[in-house]
Amino acid sequence: MSGRVGPLVEPDWLDKHLGEEDVKVVEVDYDPETAYRVGHIPGAFLIDWKRDLNKYPERDIIDQYGFESLMRRLGIRNSDAVILYGDYNNWFAAFAYWIFKIYGHDNVALLNGGRKKWIETSRPMTREEPRATESDYRVTKVDLSLRALFIDVLRNLWRRDVVLVDVRSPDEYAGRVTAPPEYPNEQAQRGGHIPGAVNIPWSIAVREDGTFKPLEELRRVYAEKGVTPDREVIVYCRIGERAAFTFYVLRELLGYPRVRVYDGSWSEWGNMVGAPVKTGEEP
Fold first, then answer.
1. 179 pLDDT band (50/70/90 cuts)?
2. Among 8, 36, 103, 213, which is 20 to 30 Å from 247 by CA?
3. At 235, phi and psi to the nearest 5?
4. Cis peptide leading into residue 130 (ω within 30°)
5. C-alpha dist (Å) from residue 264 to 133, 238, 280
6. Going from the N-terminus, what domains does the chain have, and what CATH number goes with each?
7. What is the per-residue pLDDT across 42-60, written as a single tens digit (0 to 9) for each?
């Protein structure tokens, strides 16, 4: 294959292009031991979300040079089409997609349905880990307009042309729980949501098999909550992975022009001294 892909590819398409030199398949996992190393798409490389996309010891995403280093280690070239997929309904793959966009690699796509759909359709899996030939990858542009920091959110509270979208569960939004069941030990000091934020859980975008719902249905759901293309949208969750999923839906599938991920999300806001917090359901 030569040329561009994205933003979404189907399992049938990937099946036909597996093994092509300019198509790199990458699985992105929160816990590779329970996913990638149990079995993955043949030829797929691994991105460990905690190890590879986070900058230590700070709490931050990897910088430009960290991204270049990761791409070189995986053998990804600037011209390659990269297909991302993973567990948890592509949460962490969507986070990686957002990172790819920040660092200017636009030839990137998500696999519709992720690991779940690939396995359910009885497609090939392997435990063999491929060896990469190191590349000379270079970042040529950086787009930090796709990211919102704490101060950006604070400055935009109550602006009518900006809408905050909390993509967590209704229980997290209302403050009834301080962490989702997937991460029971990772709680914020306070429960609730950012004042003015609307609650549209990430899960409204997908069917039972993990594939995306029809675009017209998605447009209607977001518009009914006041999330429209004429407004700037800032999405958040707990650590940014579910927010990145909704960023992908709004910007990449629906074409909203101004969407940012607040990746500090509730783990930052709910621990920040003096940050305003609201509890309870939406008005």
1. confident
2. 36
3. -110, 145
4. no
5. 34, 8, 22
6. 8-143 (3.40.250.10), 147-269 (3.40.250.10)
7. 999 999 999 999 998 889 9
